[in-house]
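Incident log, support desk, overnight shift.

02:14 A customer reports that sequence design results differ from what the structure should imply. Their input is reproduced verbatim below. On-call engineer (initials T.W.) acknowledged and began investigating.
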């Protein structure tokens, strides 16, 4: 008779206990790494506060507004992280991060100011000889371990990303019945939002730099590229195929989230604009459709067709991969733009209201006549807006004469057109 343990109960209980032991081991390792890294982080923050913030305030080397622009809320961040360190060193991760997350607005302030801090610091290093010497002296101290102030200022942003990974590991290896589970779960969500803020700010800053670069590449200042809400996507050389079948000409195209800009290189012998481009056309993507055209490239390169409200554009490239990337980027940009412009109506707004009811028709005949006049006026305005939206050549409609009931206004009496994006620009905005 065998006395071996049952393959179900004893082995099952043992496997569950082993799994719990592995979770506890991972949690202990993550907790140890979190405490050690938090100690180093607080030491580095203390270097900035002690050797820069406090001494600069005492000496008066920089004005108060300049100091605040560079260091922002780093002193307050140092204080809340010292409190967090005192909790995690005692193993109280839940309550420590619960109190820490209540002060995350200090990190948000610091994150939003980091680009300004870098810019002001660079200006002061170049402008102020006293600050430049002071900064070099402090960074040469052995406590800094050859770290520059520029590197230390970015530590709070890096620490938020580290917190996100540490807290996820702690939460995953903490049982739901543990009192710290809910506290850690809320901390993961709060710190993940701050981490997303860092990424969004970085993307916005990178996009701003790209827009500024394109603006400097264009001749003059009439074409405005730096517009709120505009995102840079890509740029490159493409050949425009003319409708009359003449030779295709290479042009430089810049694709943004709302427009496609066509430009040509300036004359190479120009004294100031030899390396710049002149804007020729600005195509709005709001009403654009993109199609691939096959059978015209003999399996080399590709051709895409862009149809706008008042123009049509054929673009060609000898590189098949390049034209495919352009087609993909155009489709994504147009799709996102149309999804943003989609208006969602409520159900009660979509219901058609009756023009008039029987009680109104019996008791208010004068109101009916007034409504009829208003409907006629609205109809006349819609007819005029429809005609105004047609081609600028103002071709008369069939059957239209000078004795028509509705007098057409003269071209000089037409309402003023809405201001275009770049008033006075040499670009043609279609």
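02:41 Re-run completed on a clean worker. Output:
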């Amino acid at each position: 008779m065998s006395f071996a343990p049952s393959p179900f109960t004893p082995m099952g209980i043992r496997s569950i206990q082993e799994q719990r032991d592995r979770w506890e081991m991972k949690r202990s390792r993550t907790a140890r790494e979190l405490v050690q890294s938090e100690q180093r982080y607080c030491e580095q923050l203390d270097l900035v506060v002690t050797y820069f913030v406090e001494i600069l305030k005492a000496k008066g080397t920089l004005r108060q507004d300049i100091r605040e622009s560079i260091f922002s809320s780093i002193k307050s961040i140092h204080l809340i992280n010292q409190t967090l360190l005192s909790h995690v060193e005692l193993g109280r991760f839940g309550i420590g991060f619960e109190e820490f997350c209540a002060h995350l607005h200090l990190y948000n302030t610091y994150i939003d100011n980091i680009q300004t801090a870098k810019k002001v610091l660079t200006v002061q290093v170049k402008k102020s000889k006293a600050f430049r010497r002071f900064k070099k002296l402090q960074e040469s101290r052995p406590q800094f371990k050859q770290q520059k102030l520029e590197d230390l200022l970015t530590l709070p942003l890096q620490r938020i990303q580290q917190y996100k990974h540490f807290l996820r590991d702690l939460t995953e290896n903490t049982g739901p019945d543990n009192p710290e589970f809910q506290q850690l779960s809320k901390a993961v969500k709060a710190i993940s939002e701050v981490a997303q803020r860092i990424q969004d700010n970085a993307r916005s800053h990178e996009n701003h730099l790209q827009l500024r670069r394109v603006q400097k590449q264009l001749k003059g200042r009439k074409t405005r590229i730096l517009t709120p809400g505009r995102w840079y996507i890509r740029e490159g050389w493409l050949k425009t195929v003319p409708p009359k079948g003449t030779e295709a000409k290479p042009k430089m195209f810049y694709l943004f989230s709302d427009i496609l800009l066509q430009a040509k290189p300036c004359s190479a012998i120009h004294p100031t604009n030899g390396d710049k481009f002149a804007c020729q056309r600005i195509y709005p993507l709001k009403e654009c459709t993109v199609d691939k055209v096959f059978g015209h490239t003999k399996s080399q390169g590709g051709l895409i067709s862009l149809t706008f409200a008042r123009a049509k554009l054929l673009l060609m490239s000898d590189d098949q991969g390049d034209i495919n990337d352009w087609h993909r980027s155009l489709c994504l940009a147009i799709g996102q733009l149309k999804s943003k412009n989609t208006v969602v109506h409520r159900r009660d707004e979509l219901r058609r209201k009756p023009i008039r009811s029987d009680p109104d028709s019996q008791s208010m005949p004068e109101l009916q006549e007034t409504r009829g006049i208003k409907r006629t006026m609205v109809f006349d305005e819609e007819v005029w807006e429809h005609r105004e939206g047609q081609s600028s050549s103002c071709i008369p409609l069939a059957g239209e004469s000078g004795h028509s009931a509705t007098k057409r206004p003269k071209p000089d009496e037409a309402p003023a057109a809405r201001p275009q994006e770049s008033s006075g620009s040499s670009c043609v905005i279609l």
